[in-house]
Amino acid sequence: MKKNYTHTHPKINLRTEKDLLLFLNAKATKDRRYKIPRKLVSQKDVAYIRQNVHLDWKDYAYGGDSLKFESAAEKGKMTRSIKQNSCLDVVNRRLNASFRRVLDKHVPDVFYGSVSGRTHILAAKELTNGKKTVFLSFDIQKFFESISSNRVQRFFVKAGCTKEIADFLVSITCVPLGVKGLQKDKLSLARGFPTSPRLALWCTFEIFSKLNRILQKSFSHLFPKIVLYVDDIGISLKNPSEDEIVQIRDLVFELIESDKNGLSLTVHRDPPKFRVQKVEGRAEHLGVAIGKSKIAVGSKTVRNIAIVKNQLLSTNDKDERGRVLQKKRGLMNYRKTVTKNNL
Length: 343
Known about the structure:
The protein is an alpha+beta fold.
């Protein structure tokens, strides 16, 4: 049976404020495992947010490190933090939980990272492709900031929301570009909000579904595999020629950057953000080493394990050894998790 690579917009069909409140307060969102506040969203909360939507979030200063904060501002990549247990926090977490419940089952197979149960380890494992495999790794610049509020509104309208509901959902998931208070003319998806990874997926899924469709139709002889992990793209190909690698590289650049309908996506052109690797040379993607049919921890994890082992040999301080042992346990558990996916 021929596999179908086309995908359509899922529907959430929020036509009135009552629909929105039912959607946010659905019983399935009351799950302590995901640390979702128990408080229900009321009409008063919605009214408050309409009047004070930009009061309950701030720019995150990286634990007080002003240098990193200033560097992020210069790069245009500001992380936002919502005041805990505020109305905006409750609504965003409940909205994300409702997205998980309703939308995750419709996510195309190539997407990872913004979907329940689809980890970066599984994404790397999906790229295993046998002998003579070549891996292409891409990274999108300022991914969240490149998705405008118009694009987010477009998704909600296509998902069956009225313009009024779509505008409200945009107001609680998008923020002004740049440092808060200094730039308010353009809004984009908020880096750091609970809803952002899933919304980024659904606001761009048409592009990557089209990319996958072209790869499967035009380069089927290379047995292409593609995975998306937020803003990281991985493609594996079986025994491609140099010309075919260039063709696929240019296809990725052109297709991702061609959609200007509320998007301004740009793909990094140079290493280490863009890489071409061969399976024979210990290829890595998302920090995981990828072999012909198996995966292993990446070089950074290998180095960190060696460092903590040396630290244990060189220190006798009880408190320090406790901290190092805890770090070692975390690294070893991670290695075990990666290895388990080869079974």
